[in-house]
Specification:
four-stranded antiparallel β-sheet
């Protein structure tokens, strides 16, 4: 593990000093892409330091399948053996991918895809075995630790960490609800850093959301952003944590409007509202990811309920953007999902026909 730690530090220094382009001749451009066979949409999620992208797409039968897009643009599609559908979510420095898949019975299972394309399937003890229950892999760090959650036989969610050797630690945040749909959740794909700290969300017995920080030693610190609503389906939700312990997410206020936040390791919280964000229920600003240089990506929903992307530098400077071809109608537009050390941003956009497409925005 020590050698892998120094590899990470070396990579951080290399990217900071050299600013290596992901695809040199296309620097500064937005590249859009569709996975071959993606009749009903392409959705890019994780991106690693080298520009490899993991995500999923929907075929003509509306079944989802995983893909890996290499830095040179070559796309590989895959499902774990025997799976009828799968979603790749997290990807690490080495190109290892985690996600979730299902057989025809509809039960969820976690997977790890190694760099050489071999698969390891896993189920967390206590995971339910009915349709929609089971195990989901969400995040994977550069040491091969997977962070995710499992849904038990009562449809309650619980968090877990799976070490590279397969050892599993499951946990629940104190105060998490125990009714169906409640419990402990991770961030979607970047809720685990390389020092073993995790961030996510828990839903309490009143269905109010709260965020939490769990350190490597298992200490859990719940937190709420001042101004977060306290009614059902309101509250605070975490989105991402970086290697310096900075957390981003969003909160829903008492009027059901979204606002983004940044919480640094010391606990100080800064709220973020992007100019142009709507102020009606369901509108506002949300975050998706924060990289190790403190650059935040996310989106905002305008008064017409269309989505737009933004990035916010560590100094607070905001740049908004829309992917060419993104629709401007309700629930259409640009939705950034993650950004890497080099500043590349990946995500998807919804066109005027409500179809999703992947994009890569280079710095």
């Amino acid at each position: 593990m020590k050698s892998r730690f120094f590899t990470l530090l070396t990579a951080l220094a290399l990217f900071a000093a050299l600013a290596i382009p992901v695809q040199g001749s296309t620097k500064g451009k937005i590249i859009t892409f569709d996975v071959p066979g993606a009749t009903n949409g392409t959705y890019a999620y994780g991106v690693n330091a080298w520009g490899a992208i993991a995500g999923y797409y929907y075929d003509s039968n509306y079944l989802n399948h995983s893909f890996l897009r290499a830095p040179n643009g070559i796309i590989i599609t895959f499902d774990p053996p025997g799976a009828v559908r799968s979603s790749a979510l997290g990807i690490n420095f080495e190109g290892e991918i985690t996600g979730v898949y299902r057989y025809s019975d509809g039960v969820r299972h976690g997977f790890l895809r190694a760099r050489d394309g071999t698969f390891t399937s896993f189920d967390i003890p206590g995971a339910g075995t009915d349709v929609g229950q089971g195990t989901l892999g969400n995040s994977i760090n550069d040491f091969g630790v997977i962070f995710g959650y499992f849904i038990d036989s009562n449809n309650v969610s619980h968090g877990y960490l799976r070490a590279r050797n397969g050892t599993v630690t499951s946990f629940d945040v104190p105060g998490a609800g125990t009714d169906p749909g409640q419990g402990t959740f991770p961030d979607s794909f970047s809720g685990l850093n390389d020092f073993g700290a995790t961030n996510g969300t828990y839903a309490d017995a009143a269905n109010v959301s709260h965020s939490y920080l769990r350190t490597r030693d298992g200490t859990i610190t719940p937190f709420d952003v001042p101004g977060a609503g306290t009614d059902e389906y309101q509250g605070t939700s975490g989105s991402s944590i970086n290697n310096f312990g900075a957390i981003v997410g969003q909160f829903i206020d008492s009027n059901n409007v979204n606002h983004a936040f940044l919480r640094v390791l010391a606990g100080t919280i800064t709220t973020i509202d992007i100019p142009g964000a709507g102020t009606d229920a369901g509108q506002g600003t949300y975050t998706s990811n924060i990289n190790d240089f403190g650059t935040i990506v996310g989106g905002y929903i305008d008064l017409n309920n269309a989505n737009h992307g933004f990035l916010r530098s560590s100094k607070g400077a905001v740049t908004t953007f829309d992917v060419p071809g993104a629709g401007t109608g309700e629930y259409q537009g640009t939705e950034p999902v993650s950004n890497n050390l080099e500043g590349a941003i990946v995500g998807y956009y919804i066109d005027s026909n409500d179809l999703g497409h992947g994009f890569l925005r280079l710095p």
